[in-house]
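User: Before I run my own analysis I want an independent prediction to cross-check against. Here's the chain; please return only the C-alpha cells and, at the end, one sentence I can use as a sanity check.
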Amino acid sequence: MMDLSSARSLSAVNHVEEAMTVPKISRDSAELEDVGVLCDQFGELDDYSVDFLTFREDLDATPLLKGLPDDQCQCPHWG
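Assistant: C-alpha cells:
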C-alpha cells in the first residue's frame, strides 16, 4: 500500500510531466488540402495555426494579397 507522502510525490511527478508535454504536429499528422499547384498541410496547436506549404511550381501570390494593408500578408511567420 502507498503511503500519503509517496502518493503526493507521484501526483507531483505526474503534474510536472503533464505541464512539460509540448503540443506537436507534423506533416504526417496534419490535415491535407491539395489544390494542384499547392499542397497545404495544416493543424492547430493551442492558439497557433501551423501550415506546411508545398508549392509544386512557381507562383506569384501578389494578386492574392492585393487589398490587404501594404498588399502584404498580415500574419506573423516563423520557421
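Sanity check: Strands lie at 31-34, 38-45, 48-55.
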